[in-house]
Specification:
This protein is mainly alpha-helical. The protein is about 70% helix and about 0% strand. It starts with a helix and ends in an 11-residue tail after the last helix.
Length: about 140
Amino acid sequence: MLMFTAVVFALIYFGKMATSQDDSAQLFTYTLVAVVITGFSAAHFLYNFQLSRVDRSLSLQKKMPRYLGILLVRSACLELPGLFATIVFFMTGNFYLLLIPIFIALVFYLLRPTPATIAEDLNLTTEERRLLENPDAVIAETEK
């Protein structure tokens, strides 16, 4: 997302692409606000909803692939507004819109999965937490 934003910024900044400042620019900006609100809301609610549906009685090896899928959905919901903001910036040339992908990159960093957050999100037992913190342990199995 940030690489795409950097390429689009370079194209606009160095004058390789023309931008439009007509009525559609305002429409795209308002649409962007709706996409950002929807994306962040969907990321939050889908993440919590899907986490609540993970069976706590499963082993850690069965929980982790489900957790990975949940993280993937949250990441997709967060990335969409950043990509759309870059596209709207490309069309309008409004440099303030570049704050959205930068903010989303910061959110990705803050929401990155760590052993502590994984253990908290999945309500792991003490034994599962030890297994999660062991770098040599097998913590995920995929079903065939």
